[in-house]
Model the fold of this input.
Amino acid sequence: MNLKERNDNMRDFFNRKSDGYDEVHEQFMRTKNQLIDSLNINATKILDLGAGTGLELIHLYERIPNAKTTVIDISENMLEKLKQRSFASKVETICGDFFDVSFGEGYDAVISTSALHHFLKETKLKLYRKIYDSLNPNGEFINSDKVASSEEEELACIEDYNLHKDERAHIDTPLSIDNEIEILQEAGFKDIEVLETEKDNYRLIKAKK
Done:
């Protein structure tokens, strides 16, 4: 299964899950709010990768009401629900694959929550380089996501994916913290900070261009 096939499967999966998405992901609200609280208050042009229905944007617009946000998500059903939010007029939505869609440039920050743990290391490096290029000088990339506790767990997740990728649309393949840091540095990021969250298998990772 190539990347496009995997992304197509993910699109179908999340389109089917859109009605119950908020109920499932409300358990991550404190983690999402932690990310928004770590965002520079002067960040007004923001790119959100994989925002789904926009749960993290609720607190974003409480904290930075004049922000202009571009959201890229692979699920059109999720984005339709985001468009019903009270702040929807401040959000540009783009439905598409992170690897096909143009990110644009000039962002003060790129954020993501619970969205990027579906990519293998080499693929994720390409994505991080694309994120780096989209940021202003000194712009920040802030990612709150699932991580593997070790490289052994990372390899076990990849093995599970390879064994079951043709029968299960949604399989997590999180990276270890060491590998996250390695590819962020390889993409050009500096001042990388890893913070604990209320979820044992989640970390908040901040990196600066």
Observations:
- The chain has a mean pLDDT of 92.
- The chain has eight helices and seven strands.
- The helical segments are 3-17, 21-25, 29-38, 55-63, 76-82, 121-134, 151-164, 177-187.
- Residues 19 and 78 are 8 Å apart (CA to CA).
